[in-house]
Amino acid sequence: GAFLTPLGGGGHPQAASVTLQNVKPFPLVRKMEEELKIAVHPAITVSDIMTSPVMVMPPDTPVDEAYRIMIRYGHSALPVVKGKTILGLITRKDLDKAHLHGFGKTLIREFMTEGMLTVP
């Protein structure tokens, strides 16, 4: 939004507007495109910050084994996957509770969060 301030416009970092009269649009559009290239930084994508390849847990993994793996690799949550289908998410907090209550041999499918929103 700041790059439109000299023209009497404004906005925020993600959007801006200005109303102009008696101005030839094409030179102004080119100037705005140049300014936008300087002002706008590309968004961070999931692939920029994710661990690759993605570590997953099968639903028939015992709590104790999942806990050891999560500790070893420093993850706080992992997707629970069967084949190519995401069934849910198991978190370190889920495993801590299950372990604390003596469910170390129980399978993680009993403690995972289901119905997660996913993006293809």
Provide the descriptors you would attach to this structure in a database record.
4 helices, alpha+beta, 2 domains, CBS-domain, rod-shaped, 3-stranded antiparallel β-sheet, two-stranded antiparallel ribbon, 120 residues, 32% helix
Task: Please provide a brief summary of the model.
With 120 residues, the protein is α+β, with helices and mostly antiparallel strands.
Give the SSE order as H and E letters.
EEHHHEEHE
The best one-word shape is rod-shaped
Biggest sheet record = 3 strands, antiparallel
Number of structural domains = 2
Looking at the structure, the CATH topology of the largest domain is CBS-domain
Question: C-alpha Rg, in Å?
Answer: 25 Å
Query: For the record, what is the CATH homologous superfamily label of the largest domain?
Result: CBS-domain
Report the structural category. Answer: alpha+beta
Structure commentary:
This protein has two domains: 38 residues, no CATH class; 65 residues, Roll (CBS-domain). It is of the alpha+beta class. 32% of the residues lie in helices and 18% in strands. Helix 3 crosses helix 4. The mean pLDDT is 87.
Task: List strands and helices in order, with pairings.
Elements (H helix, E strand, L loop, with lengths): L9 E3 L2 E3 L7 H15 L6 H4 L13 H11 L3 E6 L2 E7 H9 L12 E2 L6
Antiparallel strand pairs: 1-2, 3-4, 4-5
Helix pairs in contact: 3-4
